[in-house]
Amino acid sequence: LSQELEFINVSRLAGGVVAYDRTLNEEAPTEEPMFKGVNYVFDGRMGRRITDDQLGTCYTCGAKTHLITNCKNSNCHRRMVQCEHCQDAFYGTCSEGCKTRIVNEGL
Question: Cβ distance 36 to 54 under 8 Å?
Fold first, then answer.
């Protein structure tokens, strides 16, 4: 991947990004992190915010965001980046179709 994207001087972090963030916060809290945004994780947290940078694009409206969620429609359950406004407007779903389905299920 680093060769395809033409990155140079790529290293692995001992313990991963989460350990890097923990160490940075404990030992050098004023230092600017090299990792930006949210570190995506594969558990209920979805992601661990490292910086306030919003590097994602909302699946629904295209706004910049850092929020990752799953569509609330159990038949869809799409993992997506979605801004807070769209999470509210679409009741946590990814589309008008999924929103209609969960609204109708609630009746």
Answer: no
Tokens read off for 88 = 């509210």
Dihedral angle computed from the Cα positions of residues 11, 23, 19 and 8, in that order, rounded to the nearest 10 degrees: -10
Closest residue by Cα to residue 65 from 79, 84, 78: 84
Separation between Cα atoms, residue 16 and residue 104, nearest integer Å: 43
Q: Model pTM greater than 0.85?
A: no
pLDDT tier for residue 3 given thresholds of 50, 70 and 90: low
Amino acid at 95: S
E strands, 1-107, where?
38-40, 47-49, 56-57, 64-65, 68-70, 79-81
Cα of first residue to Cα of last residue in the chain, in angstroms, is: 49
User: Contact, 68 vs 55, CB < 8 A?
Assistant: no
Task: Categorize the per-residue pLDDT at 33 as very low, low, confident or very high, splitting at 50, 70 and 90.
Answer: confident
